[in-house]
């Protein structure tokens, strides 16, 4: 089965909520895979910061995002990857190209939003939106290219209009996006659990995605709470960002001040253990099975 087909099967499971840790490079993806998650989310903010060293202010290009997504999607083809595709990076022709590129990269699903091309993180203030018809043209372009490619990708329609347009107008945009072919709805910046429940009920049976950003405008919800409210997908974009920042910042401070870095706790984090997360054993076995002898005595 393709990654998109696997994801669609998950979406069809009435008893399942799809839990996606937010990862942004091969290492964080490998850690999430080792933990046993059956779906991953490639965060645009994390991709922008890790590849460009810049804040999420609409500076990442299609190539930046697609190349990262292709690498992550290729680590385990049985685990679907949902990837941020921002605004689609231009008009309908460009959105079509983005769709084709993501499909060729093995991405299972992507979300397209209604911000202007020079966008910003959904949990920052003063976002600018495009007209409704421009947003719908992005969704149509993705749906049309999917049909033209004779393949599959799950199209997620995201609106950032809740804060500036109000609930009714934002949900109206999502309903129209669903009408032109979007498979999943994504209301960014849900501000209360009551609002969350309402959008899930109003858009049913279309699956709705919850963006759980720690410290953002959305109230904290556990996976169990999100499932009870009616969400079908929950993504945690900051899953790896905050721990990596906190851990590396603490290690940097320790090294600068003491001239040494100690491994915290009793966990092992030497080269062998870290490489094992990234497929060391499987790579050695593959080499030996093909007749290689470089690793026959181990490493």
From TrEMBL:
<dbReference type="InterPro" id="IPR018523">
    <property type="entry name" value="Isocitrate_lyase_ph_CS"/>
</dbReference>
<dbReference type="Pfam" id="PF13714">
    <property type="entry name" value="PEP_mutase"/>
</dbReference>
<dbReference type="InterPro" id="IPR015813">
    <property type="entry name" value="Pyrv/PenolPyrv_kinase-like_dom"/>
</dbReference>
<dbReference type="InterPro" id="IPR039556">
    <property type="entry name" value="ICL/PEPM"/>
</dbReference>
<protein>
    <submittedName>
        <fullName>Uncharacterized protein</fullName>
    </submittedName>
</protein>
<dbReference type="InterPro" id="IPR040442">
    <property type="entry name" value="Pyrv_kinase-like_dom_sf"/>
</dbReference>
<dbReference type="GO" id="GO:0046421">
    <property type="term" value="F:methylisocitrate lyase activity"/>
</dbReference>
